[in-house]
Automatic annotation (TrEMBL):
Record-linked Gene3D superfamilies: Spore Coat Polysaccharide Biosynthesis Protein SpsA, Chain A
An annotated Gene Ontology molecular function: beta-N-acetylglucosaminylglycopeptide beta-1,4-galactosyltransferase activity
Protein name, as recorded: Beta-1,4-galactosyltransferase
Residue intervals of the Galactosyltransferase N-terminal domain: 141-273
Region (Disordered): 93-142
Its biological purpose: Responsible for the synthesis of complex-type N-linked oligosaccharides in many glycoproteins as well as the carbohydrate moieties of glycolipids.
Listed GO CC annotations: Golgi cisterna membrane; Golgi membrane
Top-level taxon of the source organism: Eukaryota
Amino acid sequence: MRGPRSAFFPIVCTLFVSCPEVNHGTGMAADSTVRFTLLHRTCKLVVLLCFLHISVTFFFYVRSLDIRFAFVQNQQSHNVSTQANRVVDLDFTSETEPKEGETKKAEPAELVPKEETGDESQAPEDEKKKAEEPEKKLEKCPETSPLLVGPLRIEFNTPVNLDQIKQMNPNVQPGGRFRPGDCVALAKVAIIIPFRRRDEHLKFWLFYLHPILQRQQLDYGVYVINQDGEAVFNRAKLLNVGYREALKDYDYECFVFSDVDLIPMDDRNIYRCFSQPRHLSVSMDKFGFRLPYNQYFGGVSSMSKEQYLKINGFPNNYWGWGGEDDDIFNRLSSRGMSISRPSGDVGKCRMIRHDRDKQNDPNPQRFDRIAHTRDTMHKDGINSLSYNVVKTERLDLFTKITVDVGKP
């Protein structure tokens, strides 16, 4: 690429060559004076245009250097973040035996290094010392992950498929399990999703949430609790089932209960537990990005194991739409706990628009049940939960547990 100086030097030279000499002779005619003045002004205009042209060319030349420099910096930062987010191959296999009726996906055989033949004394001394050295312990992940990017653009116009999501998240293990490989996560989180016939919504949830949860550096697993049959939907009971089934896989300390149609719009809205029960879906587009009422605890929430057991889990007798989240709020309040929330900006969520599901009509008994929460919570909850597991599937991006929760 030629610089501005070499590109426009001939133009300037030509300009000055073509300009006439100034003749100050006393005998010049009037018409010659007019032509000289005109040519003189023309030359000045041409010089000015040349200078402007050179300045513009120089500006874009410098700008191109800045763009190339920024591109190199971006590539370097991308490589660093990729290396930081690289995980080791982890064994997430459950040690519990599957129940009757469950199907368990075949687990890959564990890779075991081959034994060296010959006398052990022939092994090099440095290999022996290396084997005797304890593995270096990882440090805890920082309180605020350096991988977070903040506000996100969430769209539902373009369909996604599970193969595409899997390719985008190669570090997610079977069953939807992940933990960071370069530090010890601050939280072991089970994400519980009550579900029935919402496959397209689930794809969008997996598409957006897996990258978010990995950037949050969580040790997490995704559990989709699918209600079998055509009976009236029971969201709270499915959440109780998810709590119990997830603990059979791993010693989770925190539980995030999420509807399948809610996507966070900011990855700083951390899906983990806090000193008080956490309401995560604070500002939904459905409600104009405002909290509908102060006691609202629906959508997405999180509780520690201790907080959950303190309220005896969730009610099992809310069949149909509505009421269970207000019952949960009453349980928390009766046990002296308060609701914590992120800010309105960080807690923004988008809902996937849809018609209400069949067999999920509004529960006509919900208001009466909410009024008697303090009387019923001791006997209706995790201590009275009954269900039958129909099938358990350890899929690439989530664990799907199909259950029969009975009828009202």
